[in-house]
Design a protein that fits this description.
Number of strands: 11
Largest sheet: 7 strands, mixed
Helix content: 40-55%
Radius of gyration: 19 Å
CATH topology of the largest domain: Rossmann fold
Shape: globular
CATH class of the largest domain: Alpha Beta
Distance between the termini: 49 Å
CATH architecture of the largest domain: 3-Layer(aba) Sandwich
CATH superfamily of the largest domain: Vaccinia Virus protein VP39
Order of helices and strands: HHHEEHHEHEHEEHEEEHEHE
Number of domains: 2
Strand order of the largest sheet: 5-4-3-6-7-11-10
């Protein structure tokens, strides 16, 4: 595959055509099969090499470790500060990986119940081990999907939040997923996601392999627009070109 890529790069026209064909094939697969494509990728992420939050991660240990070591990533400071405004006694993170955000919240709110759910079983298993080693008795991780949260009772968390997770949830599941979040949250929702620069239906547009959407429109189905705040991420929040361009922290009071 690498040899073919090098060969194609010698001809910019062929390389562009091949890239477009590959992108269109992926888009068609996602449109036909829906969110299940991304769910499968993340449920088995530990079985393949690739680039993650802190760069290339090879092998199961390194993959989990790359997320755990990202506890000091600058965007997490803004995320925790936003959640702290609700003075929460309970918080649920959907798509927690091994729990770097759960760790930070459990540390900041030692008397609060902090729960994270993730689709990847290895991330959950290793994350729970890491949280126990840190001595947290108020934090735990559970393996499940973003829209399969029936195990939790209505209004069982003050805040429900995501961090770069809804970019993987397509139009086939996004409305039901948010509906489930609002069922669980008493005070508010907080998302760090890709915000569309133009108004849309809220269902989203496939962009650079993920979903970008207008969260003001989406969340207005569940709360008044006056209670929805969208703040663009700055370069200092997330030193990545895409995230500092289209990334945003969305805060929705319920």
């Amino acid at each position: 595959m690498d040899k073919l890529k090098k060969l194609l790069k010698k001809s910019p026209t062929l390389y562009d055509a091949a890239s477009k064909t590959r992108y269109n094939a992926r888009y068609l697969k996602v449109r036909v099969l829906g969110t299940s494509v991304k769910e499968k990728q993340w449920a088995t992420r530990h079985l393949r090499d690739g680039k993650d939050l802190l760069g290339p991660a090879e092998g199961e240990e390194d993959w989990v470790g790359s997320y755990w070591k990202s506890k000091d990533h600058p965007h997490r400071i803004l995320l925790v500060e936003t959640i702290a405004q609700y003075k929460p006694n309970s918080v649920l993170e959907v798509g927690s990986n091994c729990g770097p955000n759960v760790y930070l919240l459990a540390k900041k709110f030692p008397n609060a119940k902090i729960v994270g759910v993730d689709i990847n079983p290895l991330a959950v298993e290793r994350g729970n081990d890491l949280l126990r080693r840190e001595g947290f008795s108020n934090a735990k991780l559970i393996c499940t999907k973003a829209d399969e949260l029936a195990q939790f009772e209505n209004k069982s968390f003050d805040v429900v939040f995501t961090d770069a997770v809804l970019i993987y949830i397509g139009p086939d599941k996004i409305m039901n997923t948010i509906k489930e979040f609002t069922r669980l949250a008493k005070k508010g929702l907080v998302f760090v996601e890709w915000q569309s620069p133009k108004p849309d239906s809220g269902l989203g547009e496939y962009f650079n392999g993920n979903w970008i959407r207008d969260y003001t429109t989406l969340l207005s189905n569940f709360a008044s627009k006056e209670k929805i705040q969208v703040r663009k991420l700055l370069r200092e929040d997330w030193p990545d070109e895409r995230w500092s361009t289209i990334g945003a922290i969305i805060n929705c009071e319920l």
